[in-house]
Design brief:
The protein is α/β, with parallel strands linked by helices. The chain has twelve helices and 15 strands.
Length: 340
């Protein structure tokens, strides 16, 4: 069975085949980038004759996604995540291959397709900085031709779910980063899209704001069966939101499967750095290894399949005066190495 047939088989159900909502087949995107050389002479020559090199951002990627799935689309910097999302959303045209979403080709059916999707880019805003949120809601009501009943229901639902009542009358330019992200999520979901594309939605947010974002994403998936495709570098986003992981590296697909299977590739060692009130002589232990030993700062490593984090922390905090501590999460780059 080839990859495409195997991917389609995921949507087989008793009584027939349920066609996937999103079908991506042999998707490629190649950019031509001007080749630059050092020196004034070469810069001058480039004004008359330019040389280009080709960069393959996405290489022959294929997958299908069903209605209501929560998919983490992840990879290291430059892996091709954002490029894929832009092709799925219709912003970019593929160099080759195909994207079909609910029977539509995103870049060909832009007007109709835009009414079916919501998009949030973590570093970009679709809000008018001079308008308060309540006026922005009215603006998008007209853009998406939302009925009065749906509009009233969704504004109330998202205002409560995202805790926006305190700043709904405040101009966007006066909001914090976390408040702006809440506003962007609410706007993206106002017209009840079938699919929500999220590109690094928690980047730069504090812990409380991240938690609120994650709860919102899971809630709208539960309440409205919204299909969510999420790109992120935060492994906690993956752990708490997604039930399926698609991992790409250098434009190629490395893994596509359930989150529990993906966890098998995560490095088993966890690092914890402790800051002590005074310099201590950290004793050796059967539970952990000391990998960095500096005045006031000690880093230990332990096998999380054999030892619980809580046991390690308890052992150290009972013996020593711990001022602070930090836990190092496994990076996507480390997971890529483990899979290859």
């Amino acid at each position: 069975m080839d990859f495409w047939a195997e991917s389609l088989s995921k949507h087989w159900e008793l009584g027939g085949i349920t066609m996937p909502l999103i079908e991506v087949r042999d998707l490629c995107k190649t950019y031509e980038i001007q080749k630059r050389k050092d020196g004034f002479k070469n810069t001058l020559l480039s004004l008359f004759k330019r040389e280009y090199v080709k960069k393959e951002a996405v290489k022959d990627i294929s997958f299908t996604i069903g209605k209501g799935e929560l998919v983490g689309y992840i990879g290291a910097n430059g892996a091709g995540k954002s490029t894929t999302i832009k092709m799925l959303s219709g912003i970019l045209i593929p160099t080759s291959g195909s994207v079909i979403v609910n029977g539509m080709v995103p870049y060909k059916n832009r007007k109709e397709y835009s009414m079916k999707i919501g998009i949030v880019f973590g570093q970009r805003s679709q809000l008018n900085w001079d308008l308060p949120m309540e006026d922005t809601f009215q603006l998008y009501k007209r853009i998406y031709k939302i009925s009065d009943e749906m509009f009233k229901r969704n504004v109330a639902f998202y205002t409560e779910l995202l805790d926006m009542s305190d700043f709904i009358k405040t101009p966007i330019r006066q909001l914090s980063l976390g408040q702006k992200m809440k506003a962007n999520l609410a706007i993206a979901m106002l017209h009840e899209p079938e699919i929500l594309y999220l590109d690094e939605p928690t980047i730069g947010l504090d812990v409380i704001s991240k938690d609120r974002m994650r709860k919102f994403i899971k809630e709208i998936n539960k309440e409205k069966s919204t299909t969510v495709i999420l790109t992120t570098h935060d492994m906690n986003d993956i752990e708490e939101i997604c039930n399926r992981i698609i991992l790409i590296d250098k434009g190629k697909l490395l893994f596509d499967g359930e989150k529990e299977k993906f966890k098998q590739f995560k490095p088993v060692n966890t690092e914890v750095t402790f800051e002590f009130a005074t310099d201590v002589n950290l004793e050796k232990s059967e539970r952990y290894n000391i990998i960095r030993d500096h005045p006031l700062l000690k880093t230990i490593s332990f096998n999380k399949q054999q030892t619980r984090l809580v046991d390690v922390i308890t052992e150290i905090t009972q013996k020593y005066d711990v001022k602070d501590m930090s836990i190092k999460d496994n990076t996507i780059e480390e997971i890529v190495k483990a899979i290859q």
